[in-house]
Amino acid sequence: MSLPSYIARTLLIILFLFPVVVPLSDAKADDQGHTKTVVVIGASTIYKNDSASAREAAISSSLISAVNMATMEILPIESVVRNFTIINKILYSKTGEFVQGYKVLTEFPSEKTYRVMVQATVSISVLEKKLSEAGIVVRQKALPKVLFLVAEQRLQDNFLNYWWRKDSAFFKAVAETSLTETLTAEGFSIINHDGIMGKEGLDAVYDRPDLNNQQVEALGNRFQAEVVVVGTSTASKMTNIMGTNIKSFKGTVMARAIRTDTGAQVASTTQSAVTANSDEIVGGREALSAAGVLAGKELASQIAAAWQKEDKQANMLEIMLEGTGNLANFVKFRNMLKDLPGVREMQIKEMKPDQAIIVVSFQGNAKKLADALILKTFESVGINIYEVSEDHLRIQLIPG
């Protein structure tokens, strides 16, 4: 057997022995909304020589794989694990709601197994809607870095304590721990402020538990946060008791979330929880922790919704790029474009020998993108922006 024939045969064996998921494109927009097209392979056992039923089962298996792939791209793995039961109920039992269309590209019936290669188009818009309705936070882009400014008064305290207070750098509110765990599980990055006061120091104007939005914004920018959650958590005794030992305690968290780039409030919530315990200190902490979990879930949902809403307002622009025959220069330009402020995502729409069309999701119009590009410097390559219209640019790469 010749080497090319051997390689081809080996690839076919691998293809049909193992499930494969191949994205055709990152995403596309059509009349029915945001979609994703993928190629998947499904398989089913042939029972009693019934190849027709096995074929249908293999197609169903491939469509489930397509929906699963789309789900994994918009949800953090922690969220999938935590909500797996709900996801199974709303997605995999109703696959047809999310698949806009499919076609069988090829099929391979063996003695015991029927395999199909299917191209499927999944509606990301419908998928996001169903997940959101189920209370699952959908992530379309990287979620913001969050700093917590939570002042807390526990049962044994006479006043609010807070970590940004002078000489209180290592204090952490009980409710903040729950908030941190909850938002982390939803895909947020949390800024660790432990011990930061010893290194940074703060002006006396910030030494107060009730910071205004302007102060919150300034602190957030200082610690490189994109969103700051600021508020209070308090514990109190309730009148309900059971016997001589068990007492009840109430924890309350009041919080709001502020964007550091605009100073706008993007979320707010007030949540309370009641617990019972024979130990006052433990009972109070448990109540604060439980209220923190409730507040964290609500804040995560509101912040994510606000963050994604802004992303959906980005413009889709096309860059017609010439001079891509020099691959090194093309890679340099693409990497620079990806890291340019305001660029949410990018994908290569078309490639020709010395030309490429790049689709960019950008916070602004084509003129604003051109203005940003002209200020960038490239090693050993320059750019000539020779045409700017409402939604596209024509750019030539110039060897240095």
Automatic annotation (TrEMBL):
Q: Which Gene3D superfamilies match?
A: FlgT, N-terminal domain
Identify the InterPro entries for this entry.
FlgT_N_sf
Q: What is this protein called?
A: Flagellar assembly protein T N-terminal domain-containing protein
Q: Which organism is it from?
A: Candidatus Desulfatibia profunda
Its taxonomic placement starts with: Bacteria, Pseudomonadati, Thermodesulfobacteriota, Desulfobacteria, Desulfobacterales
